[in-house]
Amino acid sequence: MAPLTPRLVVPIDVKKQPWEQKVPLHNRWHPDIPPVADVTEGELFRVEMVDWTGGRVRDDNSADDIKSLDLTITHYLSGPLRIVDSEGVPASPGDLLAVEICNLGPLPGDEWGYTAIFERDNGGGFLTDHFPTARKAIWYFEGIYAYSPQIPGVRFPGLTHPGIVGTAPSAELLNIWNEREKRLAETSPQTLKLCEVLHQRPLANLPTPENCLLGKA
Known about the structure:
The protein is mainly β. It has one domain. The strands form three sheets. A four-stranded antiparallel β-sheet has the order 5-6-7-8. The protein has a two-stranded parallel sheet with strand order 1-3. A two-stranded parallel sheet has the order 2-4. A hairpin with a 2-residue loop joins strand 6 and strand 7. It contains two helices and eight strands, in the order βββαβββββα. The chain is about 10% helix and about 15% strand. It is globular, with a radius of gyration of 20 Å. The model is unreliable at about 190-200 (pLDDT under 50). The longest helix has 17 residues, at about 170-185.
């Protein structure tokens, strides 16, 4: 018997913006964002997704897109998905969820990726004092191998990064997060340092309402 074809629950059109997709995407963790589909416990299904920037990084030799990337627009996510058991009862906060990722790969017509260094004044990084300017390398896929015109002579087999996979917080847990982070931000922002090398940088940026994409909410 032929293997089952996974059911496509979140399709992506790589030529469209994240907010133009047929199935809405989101970029915040919140329990009020409604699920876009139900999947049954044990079901084999397929989820397509955009890259975390929503396609704002271009396949070219310039790092200007990295240099000027608006970091308030981050991590577009596919979903949420509601998990139900064989009787249609949905999972609840506190349930243990095991997810097996059976396959990963690029979408047709979008068989490339990139590595980059952020501009010191726009995001930076752990070694920003040593590498202060934006840089970008485009990687093309040949089966399991990747190569980059910007880094000649390098070709390697890689393990594809699955991106971000998680569960939506309950309202109770979200309130705990918000209270904890709000207290940290208000009481001692000058102590939230990454390391001495990044003496001028805070540990992290808190979520803001700016550039929210909230699915079907």
